[in-house]
Amino acid sequence: MFKTKHTFRRVGVYALVYFLLAGTIILNIRSSYKNKTREYSQQQANEFIIGMQSTLHHYRLLADDYYQIIAKDTVLLNLLCSSVDLDLLQKLQAREAAALRLHPVKAGAEKYHFNCVNLYYNNHLTFVRLYNPELMDYNAGIAPSLVSKSNETQSIVEGFETGPASAGFRFVYPLFLHQKHCGCLELGVDFIGLRESLKNIFPFEFRFLINKNLLLSKTPFNKLDNFKLSDLSEDYVYEKSSLQHFEKDTSRQRVDQRLIIEFNKQLRKEISHDLQTKEIFGHSATIDGVDIFALFIKIYSPDKNDEAFIIIYSNDSTAAGFYRSYLRESLVISILILLLILLVAYAIDRHKQVKIKNQELEKQAQQLSDLNQTKDKFFSVIAHDLRNPFHGLVGLTQVLVEDFDSMEPEKVRKFHNLIYQSAKQGYQLVLNLLEWIRSQTGRINFSPERLDLSKIISDNIKLAKSTAQNKDISLINLVEPGLIVFADYNMIHTVIRNLISNAIKFSNPGGKVFIEGQKEDGQIVIKVKDEGVGMDSETMKNLFRIDVAQSSRGTSGESGTGLGLILCKEFITRHDGKILVESQKGEGSTFTIILPAFI
C-alpha cells in the first residue's frame, strides 16, 4: 500500500515537472509566434497604409480640381449666399438651379467613385445634395463634423467620417463670394469607391467595420436600415449597400465570400477581443485547405470622434505558416521533454534500485557475517556440551571393561544406569541439534492439521516418566480432555517434549511439574510449570537468542545448551503463535504457549 502511494506521488511529481517545463517552453514558443504575427501584421499594415495614402492623395487631387471649378462659379456661389434666408419655395428653386450647375461636376465625380457632392451654408445646414436628396435639410452641426469644422475655421478639412448617408473619406472646402465666407463644398468617396481603387493596387478583399455607437449619434433614424450588425462584434456594423456590392462583385474577388464568412465565424471570439484593445492586428486560419490572413487597421476622423476598421483579407500563407510552425515546434518540444522526463525518471529509478540492492547486499553480508559468528559460537558450545556425556560413557565403560570381574552386581547395575543416562543425554542433545539444523536449512515440512493436543501431551508425559521418577518428580496433567489444536504434529511434539524435559531438568528432587492446556478467548493456551530453581531477568532476556546460547546444568548435573528452547521459539513462530516465560529465582518457571485456534 505504501509502495503504491509512493509510486503515485512520484508519478505526480514527474507529471508536474513535465507540465511546468513543457508549458513554460510552449508559452515562449507561443509568445514568439504572436510576436512574429504582430510584426508581420505591422509590416503589412505599413505597406497598405502607404498604398491607401497614395489612393487618398489621388482623390484629393481630383477633389481639388472640382473645388477650383465650383469656387470660380460665381452664379452658383451667389445662389448659395442669397438663398440662406429665402422662404421654402424660393429656396427650392435656388437648389434646383444650383443642382443644374453642378451636373457637369456630378458626371465627372461619378467616374472616379465620388458619391458625395454637397453644398452647405455657413450655418452647417444643407443647401444642395446631389446624392440622397431626402437629406436635404440635414444639419451637419448636430454633432462634430468635418463640415462644421470647415465652416468654423474657414479652411480645408479632410479625413474619414461617418456621414448621415454613408461612411467614407471626405474633402471639405470653404467657399467665398467676394471674400465673404458663405459655406462649404463637401466631396467624398464611400467604401465602395475606396475598395474599387484599392483593389487596383492590392490583390486583397476588403470589408469595413463602423463603430455602432458613433453611427447612432450621427445617422438619421430613417437611414439606420442601411446598416447591419457585423458577424465579428456587436459593437460594429457593416453598411448594407457596400456589403451587398462586395458580395455581388466577383470580377476581381481574391478571397471567396464563403471562406470569409467561415473565417469570421471561427475567429469571432479572438477578433472581437482585439477590436476592443488594438488598432492594428492580424489573424490567420486555414479554411477548407485555403490559408487566409485578415489584417485589421483602425482609422479615425481628424478629431478622433469617428472610428472604423478596414479589414484586408488575403490568400496569404505566411501567418498561417507561423501558426503551423508553432504547433509543430510545440509538439516536438512536448515529445522531447516527455522522453527526457522518462529517461530521467528511468535513471533515477535505476539508481534507487541499485542503491537499494547494494544496501540489501550489504545488509545480507552483515547478517551473514553475524550469523556465521553466532553459529561458530553456538557450535563451540554444542561441541563442548556433547563431550560431557561421551566422556561419561567412555569413563564408565572403561571401568566396566577393566574391573567387571571384580565388581559386585549392584555396582554393575549402577554403572549401567549411569551409562544409560549419559547416552540418553547425548541422544537428546544430538536430536535437538539435528532438528535445529533441519529447520535452518528449510528441510522441515510445515503441515498443520487437526490434532488431539491432550493425547500429544499424554504421550510426552509417558516418555518423560522414567526420567522424572529417577528424580522423584511428579508430572501432573491438567489438560482439558479432547482439546483440539490445528498444528504440525512433529513441531508440536518437539516443543512439548523439550518443555517437559526442561521442567524436569531444573526441578528439585521430589518436586512437581504441572502441564495445563485449555481454550481461552479463541486461542489455545498451553502452560508447563515447575517448582525448580527458576531464572533471573537477565537469563530470561537471552533465553531464546542463539547468539548468547550458553550451557546450563540441571539440578542433578544434567547438561544442556538452550538449543531446545530456541527450537521451541522457531516452531511456535511458524504457527503464528507466541511463547512466553515467567520466572523468579528459586521459585520455578512457567512457559506459556499461545496458538491461534482455527476451529
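That was protein one. Protein two is written in the same sequence-then-structure order:
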Amino acid sequence: MAEPHHCHVVTHVHWDREWYRPFEAYRTRLVELVDQVCRQLDAETIATFHLDGQTITLRDVADLRPDLIDRIRRHVRAGRLTIGPWHVLADNQLVSGESLVRNLLAARRHGAAVGELTGIGYSPDAFGHPADLPRVLAGFGIGTALVWRGAPPELAEFRWRSPDGSEVYAVNQCYYEVDVLWDEEGRAGRLEAFLDRERARRDEGPWLLMNGADHVAPRDTTPALDNLSPKDALLTESSLDAFFRDLRGARPSPAVVDGELRHAGGPGSFLLPGTLSSRIYLKQQNAAAEALLERLVEPLLAAEALATDASSPVAAVASPVVDGTTTGHLQHAWELVLENAPHDSICGCSVDEVHRENEVRSERVMQLGHQLARRALLRAGFDTRVHGAPATDRTRIAVHLPLAGSREALPAVVDIVIAPDRTVAGLEAPDGTEVPVEVEDLGTSMSFEADLDLLPDSVLARRQRLRFLADAVAAGETGVYTVRLGARDPEPVPTDTVPLGSAIALPGGLTVSIADDASFTVADAGSGIRYERLGRLADGGDRGDTYNYDPPADDAMIAPVARPRVEVRHSPVRTVVRWRATLDLPVSLDATRDARSAETVATVLDFELARWNGRDEVDWSVAFVNGARDHRLRAHFPIADEARSWRSGQHFSFLDRPFGPIAGEFPTDRNREAEIGTHPAHGYASAGSLGLLFDHVSEVQGVGPREEPAELAVTILRSTGWLSRFDLRSRTTGAGPMLATPEAQVLRPMSARIGLRFGAAASDAFALAGAADSRRAAPLAAQLREGTLVPAPKTAPVTVEGAIVTAFKPADDGEGAVLRLANPSPHARTARLRLGPGLGATAVRFDETALDGTLGAYAEGMFSTIDIALPAQATASVRVTAR
C-alpha cells in the first residue's frame, strides 16, 4: 500500500487591524482571540497557531492586556505559536521599498523580547506583489514567500525572482479554508473535496490546509483531526516553516516566475486593482511622510551618528533644548507610517472612520518629522527659530540638501519674515555670488515663535516667499544664503495674458500652447518633436466600489472647456503658465446605476505649467474641489513617437509593460474579476521620448495600440460610495461587506502634480529614477534667527556618485549609519562612495548584518573612496562607522 501524502494543517487567523470596523473595535476582539488561543494551546486542543505574520498584534494586545505577553512568549519559545516576519501586513505595492525594509526591521525589534520570528515571507492577502519583494525578503535571510492574489493560478509553487536576480521559493496558497474543519457535520466530505482540489494542483503533496480566516477565532483542531482519516493523506497540525521544509525537499526546483505578481486569478482570487486609486489623498499623504523620513530626517540623523565625539554638533550648541537622543522619536514616526501601511488602510478600502484616523497619523508624522529635522539643524548650529525683532537690513537662510547621487540643481522654496516696511532686494550664495530669486509677497501679519528657552513672542512682520535654485550647496551639506533687504515695495512678477492657442516660450527651447480642452502641446525646438494634447483630462462614470473600477454600460465621457485667456509669468528663475477650465460633471449615477445623471455640477479646474531656468523638466499641476460622485478622472499623455511598451519605476528597479485596452472582457460567471490594465508606478512612467514624474505611487495605464497614438493615462481621482458591492460587471461578487462609504466619494479639494521630461532623458531609466528621487529629496530651507552664530562650512561625511541613494539612516543597532545604493537601470554602473576622515565602511544586507568580504578603499588626502560595482537593477547596502 502506498505511503499517505502529508497534509500540513496550519491553524491561524488573518487579522486586519482596521477594515469594516475601526481599529479599537477590532482590538478588543483581538485581545479576546489571543486570550482564547493561549487557553487552547495550554489545554492542547490546538497544537500550533500562526498569529498572522505581524508583530504589531503583540503591541496591540500588550496595550490592553500586558499579562498576556508572558503567555505568548512561553508559547512562541516552545514553538507552538509563530509570529512575524513583518511588523504589519502592508500593501507592499503602495509603500516605498524603504518602508518594506523598516517594516521588517521593526518586527525584529518588537519580536526580540518574545521569541524567534518565522522564517517564512508571509504575505497572503496583499492585492498583488511587487517585483522587488524577493530582493527585500532575501536581504533579511528569508528564502520563502507565501502569496495568493496576483500569483500565477496555474502554479502551486514557483521560484519567484526579482529584477536583480534575488530569488525566493514561493507558494500560491489560494484562499483560506476555514470552512473545511469548522463544523463536525459534513467535515469529512469537505476535507476530501479540499484534498481533491489540492491533488489537482500538487498530485503527491505535500499539501497545506490554512485552517483559519479573517477575524475568526480557531475551533479546537486537535480533536477534529483525531476523528478524521482521509484516504491517501496524513493530517498533521503543523507550521508554515515545517510545510516549506517538506515541500522544498519534495519539489526543490519549480518553474521560475520573474517580476511582479499581478496575474489574473481564478475564482475568488481577486487582484482588486481599483485600490490603487481609491482615496488618492491617502497615497499622497503617505508618500509625503515616507519622503520626509527617508530623504531628510534619517540622513540628518545618520550624519550625526557619524560625528566623532570631539566634533559632535550636539556638544557645540549651548541651547538647553538640544537633545541628541532621537532613536525613539524616529522609531515612533515610522511606527505611525507603518500603522497606515496595511492593505485595508493605505488602499482606501475601509469604512470612513478608519481613513480619518489614517489622515491624523500621517499628519502626526509630518509634525514629528519636521520637528526632528529642525532640531537636527539646531544641533548642527543652525537656529531656525525666528524670534524677536524682524530683520531690517539682512537676514540669512540655511539650506540643507539631502544626500543624493544626483548633481542637478534643485528648487528651494522658503518663507521669511522681515520688518513690515522692508522687502527682499537680492540673494547671495554662501560664496557671495548673486543668486536669481523670485519674490512673492504674502502680506503683513503677526509672526509668532516660542520654545523651551524662548518666551512667546508675537511681532508684526512682512512675509515673503522666495524661490531659487539651490545649486551652491553640495548634497548632504548645509549652506547659508544671505538675503539683502531694501525699503522699496516688492516688484511684481511680470505677467501677460494671451489667448488660448498662443505659442508661449519656455526656458530651454520649449514652446507650449493651451488648447480648448485645457490640454497643452509642447514643441521641442531641439528634437523637432511636437507632443500633442498632453494632460488631456477625461472623466467617466464609475459604478464600482473601493476595490474595483466599474464603468456604467451607458457611460458619458466628459472633457473640460478652457477659459479664453492664459496667464504667463516670467520671473528671474522660472516661467509659469496658468489657465482655468470648467468640467461640467454629472452629479452622480442615475437611479439605474447604469448611466450618469442628467443633473450636472460645474467643477472649476486651475492648471499650472512651470519650467525653471536650467532644469530639464516641466511641472504640470491641476487643482479643484470635487463636487461630483461616482466618477473617475484621468489625465492622458499621448506618446509622440513609436513605442511598443511603456516603463515604470518600482521600489528598487523598473519594469516594462505592454500597451493594452482599457479593460478586458467582463466576466459572466460568478466569483470572477475582469482584467483592468492599471498598474502601480513608483517615481516615474515613460514611453518613447516622454517621461512622467510622480510625487506618490500612481495608478497608470498604457492605453493602445488601438488608440492612436498610444497614451499613458494617470488616475487623478476616483470617487465611489461603497466599500464593496455585489452587482458589478468587473467583479461578479463582493470583495467585502456592502457598507456605504460616503467619504470615498472624495468630496474635497484635490490636486495632482506631474513632472514631464522630453527626449533622450525620457528613455534613460537611471536618469528618470534620479529625477524622481530629486522630487522626493527637496532641499530644506529655513530662515535663521537674527543674531545667532552659524558654524563654519563642513563637508558631508558621505558623498555618492553614480547611484540612487534610497537610504541613509542611523543603523538599527546604534553602530554608525547604513547607506543603500540602487542602480534601477538596464546597464551596469559603478557607484563611488567618498567617506570623511576617520570613517570606514563594510557591506551589509538589508537587515544590516555583515556580508562576507571587504570593500576596497583608496585614500584621497584625509578622505577615502570606495568604488562599488552595481550590476543592472542591483542594490548595495553599506554600514559606515567611525574607525
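The two ends are 67 Å apart (CA to CA). Keep this in mind for the problem set.
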